[in-house]
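User: Hi! I'm working on a homework problem where we have to compare a predicted structure to a textbook description. Could you give me the structure for the chain below?
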Amino acid sequence: MNTKQIDYCIELAHTLNFSRAAENMFVSQPTLTYQIKLLEDEVGFAIFERSGKGAALTPAGSQFVTYLANMREEMKRAIEQGQNFSAKYKDNITISMMVRQAVYFLPEAMRIFSDRHPDIQITPKFEYENGVEGFLRNETDILFALKEQTKQIPGIDVHDLFDSHIYLISRKEDELASKNLLTEGDLYGRTLMVGGGSPPALKAVQHRLIASGKINFFNSADHDTTLTNVAAGRGVCLAPGFLNDHSGQFAWTPFDCRESFSCVLCTHKNDARDGVNEFIEVLKGLYLEAVAFPL
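Assistant: Happy to help. Predicted structure tokens:
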């Protein structure tokens, strides 16, 4: 299988017409037809059903083309990243985090570091669920994580970054938004969004509140779904402060509880590059300077 065959297959799946697909790919129809046949012979199943009206994807072909399109997009990004890197940089440091807002000062740290080391590229990588696994496969150089996630991971260095507390997220018009600190009693009679991949400390608080029998709850699939439900007035939710994008769309009010989150950066012990540790120090310095920044 080569890139031409992949492109021909994706285009034919889009047009479902051999003549139009060949025209769009600037080749003759016999050439496109022949390459599609070679591809089908290689994979061992029919991707398209031919008829006088054109072509139609087989069930196996539909699944296969979806995979090809994703693979082609990944390849495109890899080529673009390589072009960017080769044109300007001598090294690349990749930092993985679950969401963009998790490391609020990342853009500022990147600017500071770039001024000092214009030949080293910092590349953010967002992995909501599989960041630890990718880091362990050496796909990333720095991992943002909760300290509790790192206790059983060998061969890493853990750098303390900040402690994050628990907040209640509500609509800005909600009466709860007018308070400076919320307690369990403030939530009696309200609907609390729960689930959505909550870390253990947050789940403990959620379960404690639900066990009171005075709070309704509603299961939500993930954080974005939860925020959508809050915006729609379906309830409120609790979340760690590091998920706050500080956009002002919602009210984030501190919640009175003993639980908090120790947020850290992880690096590989065998990574001796000075740039990695220096970049971490830049990030840590920004958090230390922002003494009044809500986390």
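For your comparison, note the following. The mean pLDDT is 92. Residues 6 and 71 are 9 Å apart (CA to CA). Good luck with the assignment!
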